[in-house]
Design a protein that fits this description.
By secondary structure, this protein is of the alpha/beta class. It has helices at residues 43-49, 88-100, 104-120, 134-138, 198-210, 223-231, 235-242, 257-264, 281-290, 298-304, 311-317, 336-346, 352-359, 361-366, 408-415, 428-431; strands spanning 2-4, 9-17, 25-33, 36-42, 53-56, 60-63, 66-71, 123-130, 148-155, 183-190, 215-219, 271-275, 293-296, 321-323, 395-399, 422-425. The strands form 3 sheets. Strands 1, 2, 3, 4, 5, 6, 15 and 16 form an 8-stranded mixed beta sheet that branches. It has a 4-stranded parallel beta sheet with strand order 7-8-9-10.
Length: 432
């Protein structure tokens, strides 16, 4: 992987560009100036309107940076330590036990290695979730990748009251200390409807809303979750009781997680339902009506054997979906290219351009990095997710030797299997 620095006004020409919406432009170019994209389109037209230093990337595809909208970097030391399980609650127990055996000197190097791997494979935006504080410590390191996004302090309080989240509200990333060039905001997330009380979910959403932070919550991930939220029985109930949480009948939602979140008033365009494997037509209608989006983590779902994301139904309903990897406790890699390939294989009728959009524009939207004109603070000078005027001049060149015009999107979704073909255009430390 290599970086291509920006000059004051640059014309980046390549065999193809994919500015957004799965549209492929052959012999395309992107014009950058002052850390932002000025124009993108056919190279011939660009050359007639702009004059500056031209950098020819040859047989490459220029695309927006990738987004991992949901990951748990702090669980990176657990890679290869857990086996696939057909029981979600058994996997949770195994995770807790394995986590207790990690030695103190393993945590930070594993998190740093995972973060650097993400960046090497083209990820610039992250929605990271944790409750141990390990990832936030890593983000203060000078060699932490220059990500933009959100670190969520995850709250697990099955019987919590609103005041119970007060100890978590003080998290922050002081200016100048969150990595050499990282632009990470701090947010709060409720873990799931079975592990956070209704009052905790409502208060957490309100805290994020006040700060214009998108709210994330694990939703409808496993059959065991569905059994518990509907009937109040099953392995999830046993798991909670083993940990000292006595759940009363009044605290059982009695409906799907999506309907329950709607009832609590927390679904809107700044809410992301993570996983959303087990949804029905009524859930889809609620998601569409409220503007809520979903984040799919197909390879984690396959590892845990909890089901397959219903990608075709989300696409048909017009519900935006982003991509995440979850953690190395339920995945063997944090590669978004691998997630795209998996999702495309699971949903062959969904166009590859739609899946690329999930990994770019929809991911950026899910973590609040996609809108022009939104004041997100000094650390977010321009949005990301598309190669459009006004978006940040930090994007990817994907080497694509031997690819024909009609194969570009398939190649991006299925053909990139490591960092070697990936180059950054504009060093994000300087050009973002």
């Amino acid at each position: 992987m290599k970086d291509v620095p920006c000059h004051p006004l640059c014309i980046h020409r390549a065999e193809w560009i994919v500015p957004g919406d799965g549209i492929v432009i052959s012999d395309g170019a992107v014009v950058t100036f002052g850390g932002k994209i000025v124009a993108a389109g056919a190279a011939k037209a660009i050359r007639l309107s702009y004059h500056g230093k031209t950098i020819d990337h040859g047989a490459s595809v220029l695309i927006p940076p990738l987004v991992n909208a949901h990951c748990h970097l702090e669980l990176s030391p657990l890679k290869w330590r857990l086996s696939p399980s057909s029981s979600f609650s058994s996997w949770v127990n195994s995770l807790v036990e394995a986590r207790s055996r990690i030695s103190p000197d393993e945590w930070l190097p594993a998190v740093m290695s995972a973060a650097k791997g993400l960046f090497e494979e083209g990820v610039l935006g992250i929605g990271d979730v944790g409750n141990l504080g390990i990832a936030s410590r890593a983000m203060e390191k000078k060699d932490f990748p220059p990500f933009s996004g959100i670190f969520y302090r995850e709250i697990i309080k099955p019987r919590g009251e609103p005041e119970d989240i007060k100890p978590f509200e003080t998290g922050r990333f002081p200016k100048g200390k969150n990595g050499a060039g990282a632009a990470i905001s701090f947010g709060l997330s409720s873990h799931a409807v079975y592990s956070a009380s209704s009052q905790v979910i409502i208060r957490t959403k309100a805290w994020d809303r006040e700060r214009r932070i998108p709210f994330q919550i694990h939703t409808a991930e496993s059959p065991e979750e569905m059994e518990f939220v509907v009937s109040g029985t099953g392995p999830i109930l046993d798991l909670l009781e083993e940990r000292g949480h006595c759940i009363t009948r009044e605290e059982i939602p009695g409906c799907s997680p999506v309907r329950y979140l709607y009832r609590l008033g927390v679904l809107d365009s700044d809410t992301v339902c993570v996983h959303a494997v087990h949804v029905d037509e009524g859930d889809l209608e609620i998601l569409k009506r409220t503007g809520a989006s979903v984040c799919l983590c197909p390879r984690s779902n396959l590892f845990l054997d909890v089901g397959i994301p219903q990608v075709e139904r989300f696409a048909a309903a017009g519900i935006p979906f982003a991509l995440g990897t979850d953690s190395l406790a339920s995945n063997d890699t944090l590669s978004i290219f691998a997630e795209m390939s998996s999702l495309a294989s699971l949903a062959p009728t969904v166009p590859p351009g739609c899946i690329l959009t999930a990994a770019t524009e929809h991911g950026a939207r899910a973590i609040g990095l996609s809108e022009i004109g939104v004041d997100a603070g000094e650390n977010h000078p321009a949005p990301m997710g598309r190669l459009d005027p006004g978006f940040r001049a930090t994007f990817l060149a994907i080497r694509a030797d031997g690819i024909r015009d009609g194969e570009v999107l398939e190649y991006l979704v299925h053909g990139v299997t490591g960092p070697d073909p990936v180059s950054w255009i504009c060093d994000p430390l300087r050009g973002a």
